[in-house]
Design goal:
The structure is a single chain. This protein has a single domain, classed as Fumarate reductase/succinate dehydrogenase, transmembrane subunit (3 helical TM bundles of succinate and fumarate reductases, Up-down Bundle), CATH 1.20.1300. It is elongated, with a radius of gyration of 22 Å. The longest helix is centred in the first third of the chain and has 32 residues. The chain has 5 helices and no strands. Helices cover 82% and strands 0% of the residues. Keywords: Heme, Iron, Membrane, Metal-binding, Transmembrane, Transmembrane helix. It is a multi-pass membrane protein. Belongs to the cytochrome b560 family.
């Protein structure tokens, strides 16, 4: 029984302070955060659709909010979260197919997700600003 006291003073499992953050770990956390952000963005989309159904005056009010610099910043963040989460889902799909488990492949997929999400978001906004 003398060992029981020694075991009670040790941590039960390793914590984030012990693990060295690696890219795939950060990507996992970002995937969860962007998934949660999509809930907020869906509320914004629902509010916009409700405003469209409510009438022109309320629709103009909501469009005024979304068209402000802060509204556009929030919508830009929502767009990035949507694209990043989608690309992260494709990365998981590759893993579900049994591929991409090597260290180089994992790192490449993680970097491609980050770079791809930024480039696709910028492209979507660029096209949207040129058309609109």
């Amino acid at each position: 029984m003398p060992n029981a006291d020694l075991r009670s003073n040790r941590p039960l499992s390793p914590h984030l302070q012990i693990y060295k953050p690696i890219l795939t770990m950060v990507m996992s956390i970002l995937h969860r955060i962007t998934g949660a952000a999509l809930y907020f963005g869906t509320v914004l989309l629902a509010w916009w659709l409700i405003a469209a159904a409510a009438g022109p005056a309320y629709f103009d009010f909501v469009n005024g909010i979304y068209g402000s610099w802060f509204g556009r910043l929030v919508l830009f963040g929502f767009t990035w979260a949507l694209v990043h989460h989608m690309l992260g889902g494709l990365r998981h799909f590759v893993w579900d197919m049994g591929a991409g488990f090597g260290k180089e492949a994992r790192e490449w997929l993680a970097k491609a997700t980050i770079i791809g999400s930024v480039l696709v978001t910028l492209a979507l906004w660029g096209i949207g600003l040129m058309v609109g």
